[in-house]
């Protein structure tokens, strides 16, 4: 019940035990195509360039940034938590000229502040986290795409922590690139990163095309400003997933099965229904921790559905209490990074864990542990409030 | 039965269905430490820096090269097949000054030729494929480490296709870095890349240390020549696997379980016993295809145990016949790249597939399909020769 990785859906765990096949076996290429189509549904996009990067969520981030950003390009990163710093870091390593704006942890940016910075910086790319688990905040994106389009800026968002548990509309919101991971609301293991690119982003990637030595054929492009990574060169990855099926990496078959099953679970239940389930479970957990008398961190109007940060009560040893919840109840909760390290616990309700029994059991365990460490908490204050929320939903 | 990916060991498939835990759960960190120790056994090393890269085998290659090579450094790549070109490509993208020497496909390099090139080029790094699946050749490495040490050159080898099915002694052979994948002789899925670094290599990596923004603390190093990738910065990956457990990526738990089980299977059977099983299965497959009257490609004295390339007989449509083996018998064999594309089939005997029934079934299928396409083949010529090899082993 931490901020992710989380307990996966049982069917996702089972999917990974399926036998492997060769990478150009028609069964495999059909599974790849099916996965692409399923993720179009997850992302809310008709983007042809919808695929998986074979690595964890930050592999997807790096693939998007190094493929879209040339050395020297300006990149604007609004930072409202740890993962904004990560986007800036990755862009800096890609030799971009990185500009950041920052807001206090626990807040998000008004869209006007983002537009002002765009006008001032004139970036090639706006790189914006949607849900930053470090602060639990959910940055509104719905008006940002139009602003980027108006100013000729590519719009990339990292939706690792939010996708599947909060609204995300790649096409309607004007995203040019978005990446995620399975280990949060999608309810799978870390190790595969769904990615989608608009046609405008594909054009940028294609303009830097280079087919690798060893399989290059006469007539294949080799741009001077080719991507300085082989593994993350989206041009080659598109050729691998696309009709040309040019050999690049060997697709991580078991992780593909997992990613496919994550999307199937979501679309079978219904994308809106899954988000609503996250909303209710998150509201119940919020009511529960408040019912235990705990103070919640951050701007609640912009909290992600799937994670809550609670201030560790004075006098309670945070790490020791967290260890007790894990050791005695088998339930993991997290702390956070930077200014919030040791100050808050983060409790998730994501994917398979966005369930009433998971929420209530966690609150019961938390109550018992808080009490043991001397905190004064209302008896059943957490479970009652959470159960009421579920009953009212 | 292609050149990989292959059918995984059943216990490896099952291992991936195990429940996930949080990344700093003591169970998880213990699993990571256990995996490191198991891979020391697989690699034949006492290197502390033995871990997994969360990506496919080429992710491991890129991590090793971008972390060991600074822009402008000279890298020497002896190319004897497609994957030598890949190492050169990755080093070139890392902005190294890349020098290659080439030998005819189907051959390996005499060690004297490699030493001459080292003396001439004076590289920082020698990057040398051990087993190149494109040609099936197994480059002898046992004398190369001493030569590199003599000339002050770092010695890196890509053992993706060979590790576990052919001898590999990281310490005894003087390797500074080596990487692999699970999807060949280790009998697992693609998506996790075992990597090991000598102390000398760790020193190079550490000299370029930079802790990423967002978790950097006062006193943390930030070298000017930091690695131009976040995901593949081995300094940060070492901090994540090491006692500091600094947050980097979120470990791909299910793939870690798979990698751990691959190593367990290998070490339980015994490293030498597994290599011998590959030797026998490979010899049987070789005898079998020869028993069918097929011509084998390349220098047989330097063939990897686990794959054989056979010339497609004149008059037989290679791709159609391969499709028939797959469609009618459910058995996959491969073709190859570059000059060998459409000229040879590659048949593997790797990991779980290095078994008598797998070899004989494949040869029976191949005989039937060759006959259907009009080739004149001795009845039971393949299966008899292979069975004799197994009986004599």
UniProtKB/TrEMBL annotation, chains A, B:
Residues 28-205 form the Aminotransferase class V domain. Keywords: Aminotransferase, Pyridoxal phosphate, Transferase. GO terms for biological process: glycine biosynthetic process, by transamination of glyoxylate. Substrate binds at residue 346. It holds the Pfam family Aminotran_5. One of its GO terms (molecular function) is alanine-glyoxylate transaminase activity. The modification N6-(pyridoxal phosphate)lysine is found at residue 184. InterPro entries: Aminotrans_V_dom, PyrdxlP-dep_Trfase, PyrdxlP-dep_Trfase_major, PyrdxlP-dep_Trfase_small, SP_NH2Trfase/AEP_transaminase. Its cofactor is pyridoxal 5'-phosphate. PANTHER family: ALANINE--GLYOXYLATE AMINOTRANSFERASE, AMINOTRANSFERASE CLASS V. Belongs to the class-V pyridoxal-phosphate-dependent aminotransferase family. This is Alanine--glyoxylate aminotransferase family protein. It comes from Microbacterium allomyrinae. The lineage of its organism: Bacteria, Bacillati, Actinomycetota, Actinomycetes, Micrococcales.
